[in-house]
Amino acid sequence: MAFVAYSASITALLPFNRIFSGGMGKKWNRISPGYSARLRAGPSALSRTSSFSSAAAGKAGGAPPLPQLSEADKTLPIYTWPHKKKPRVCILGGGFGGLYTALRLESLLWPEDKKPQVLLVDQSERFVFKPMLYELLSGEVDEWEIAPRFSELLANTGVEFLQDRVKLLNPFDHWGMNGHKQSSCGGTVLLESGLLIEYDWLVLALGAEAKLDVVPGALEFALPFSTLEDACRVDEKLKTLERTKFGKDSFIRVAVVGCGYSGVELAATISERLQGRGIVQAINVESTICPTAPTGNREAALKRACVTVLTDGSCHRRIHWKTVCLIRALSLNITSSS
């Protein structure tokens, strides 16, 4: 038995591996945005952004117009904001970008009549601290420590939360570049539940998803590692293999495809968990792994963890249940020896 953990096409939302040196545990109630950058909203920047959005959506380059709400959609229930005159900010996506933006807007000092109302929308009821997903595999943390509920994180704030998925975005054209000007609000968001949200400002922080259709076989035979659900599935697969191989001489063989920061740490974590019972091989399309890391550190980390690295242009071509085939006519056998 063996399995493939796939991280080749997972786009990291943030360019770092870990942002805290220790576990989060009970510190979630002290979470803080910690931004030092100044917020700027000058008229020139606003006009450039709005003009670009309108042109990109309409006439420029022959791009198709933005989809519009149907007549039936216009009769859907509308989200009721607490205050009619205060600015309305809708944030789509509750990852680092979305959650920190919501908390930052809440923490800033505003004139009473200018403090924005903030609504955060995410498809999950939990915020996932992705840099610590690996600790879930090693048993260093519990699920609740790295995935607290939004309702708990936002309990003492003025930020409202909705668990839902986005169906349609309909930004209004304030510049008249695509026809008649619209200025009643910034636009609308239609959710899959049928709820319509009118906003003045919209923040898109939808993050990234694992893309498994790049390599044939990955969708059927590989496990992505990007979400809490992914981490739980990998953990369950490892537990199954550990039970199956308990007391036997055969090894648990694991191939990790993709040697970015996620893939490297995933390979090292699995190797440390399996110790002498497993063989972990990391496959990368580039000639080096984690090119921005200090020279030598990346290789040393995997060497200490007993992970074999296959690089230098050996790009993965297809994935089967028992093998990973590489472009350079190299077939990595991950079948157990039994």
UniProtKB/TrEMBL annotation:
InterPro entries: FAD/NAD-bd_sf, FAD/NAD-binding_dom, NADH-Q_oxidoreductase. Its cofactor is FAD. This is FAD/NAD(P)-binding domain-containing protein. SUPFAM superfamilies: FAD/NAD(P)-binding domain. It comes from Gossypium harknessii. One of its GO terms (cellular component) is chloroplast. GO terms for biological process: aerobic electron transport chain; phylloquinone biosynthetic process. One of its GO terms (molecular function) is NAD(P)H dehydrogenase (quinone) activity. Residues 88-300 form the FAD/NAD(P)-binding domain. The lineage of its organism: Eukaryota, Viridiplantae, Streptophyta, Embryophyta, Tracheophyta.
